Amino acid sequence: MNTNYGMEIVRATEIAALTAARVQGLGDHIDILNQTRLAITKILDRLPINGTMVNDRFSTRPEAFQFPQHLGKGGEDADVMAIALEAYRSAADGRNNSTSYAAIARAGAIQPVPNLNMYKIVVGPKVGDAIDINQPPAVNVKRVARTLRKYTENVTVCVLNQNRHKQLIHEIRSCGARIKLIDEGEISGCLAAIKGEKADIYIGSGYAPEAVFVAAAIRCMGGYFEGKIFYENDRDKKTASEHGITDYNKIFRTEDLIRSREVAIAATGITDGEFLEGVRFTPNGGITNSFVARGETHTYRSLTTNHFFDYKPVF
Ligand SMILES: O=P(O)(O)OC[C@H]1O[C@](O)(COP(=O)(O)O)[C@@H](O)[C@@H]1O
Asked: Which domain of life is it from (predicted)?
């Protein structure tokens, strides 16, 4: 793409985060989701692109504010993906790990995926392709330990704290590795594993669109991902085929989900999370913490931004 749109889309995730943070903890799950989705849309719609929105998890949820299918003031063709408020219940309840995400890529680069469950394993660039989704969790954890030259006991595995992960958690504990449980917001857990500081590997299942954002992040930051969609019935398979997916045993890797190096991502913390700090309000303003990265150059930036509401007409 001609422009580093990462520097543009981060302004959208910042406004989304400020919007969500204002109503954080008020307990209204749908209101916070919709306010945030509207806010990110307003900013993304100002981009000088002819954008197509891909992979909206809430497109079949009538109670959710619906993203327009086309975005931007006109210009270069591009795919856009927004997860305006990941972990919206956490944000509404005042819990950790909610974040605003956006990605932009060359037109046609972002694979559309159904809103089905996907089992994922994510690691950072130092581990690379040492993992194999067909192997049991303990084997993968030990491979991570060997590659990072750590004791297994010192490997940290990030897992969503959900009932469906009971057996997974048991197997990880049995091999002696450390577990970092998060209640919601698996993208932040995956990004933490890619960065390799708070976690060394993310394992578990959540939604497939989340994996697409993680793949975009890997395109920009390095790392490795394998994922497998769960199909509960023929209807799930039909939904997948409507997204162009007909191999129901397919192991998805980064290149399958983001088919170009021409991609940029942005993320802004809403509540404190595994990857980013949340919004802090100041007298008449707020401070946001964001991350921006670009696939073509692998340049990444951490931004601490001071916002002054008197001078911010959109807000
Ligand atoms: O645990 P569940 O409810 O099946 O959903 C898993 C999904 O929930 C999340 O933790 C939060 O999702 P939301 O953005 O819908 O709040 C995702 O990161 C994950 O993919």
From this structure: Bacteria
- Distance between CA atoms of residues 225 and 222, nearest Å: 10
Express each pLDDT in 81-139 by its tens digit: 999 999 999 999 999 999 999 999 999 999 999 999 999 999 999 999 999 999 999 99
Structure tokens at 154: 């010192």
Cβ–ligand 1 contact at 87 (below 6 Å): yes
Q: How far is the CA of 131 from the centre of ligand 1 (A)?
A: 24
Nearest C-alpha to atom 5 of ligand 1 is from which residue? 206
Cα–Cα distance for residue pair 230/210, rounded to 1 Å:
14
Q: Is 89 in the pocket of ligand 1 (CB under 6 A)?
A: yes
- Domains in the chain (CATH in brackets) are 6-108+261-311 (3.30.540.10), 117-257 (3.40.190.90)
- Model ipTM? 0.92
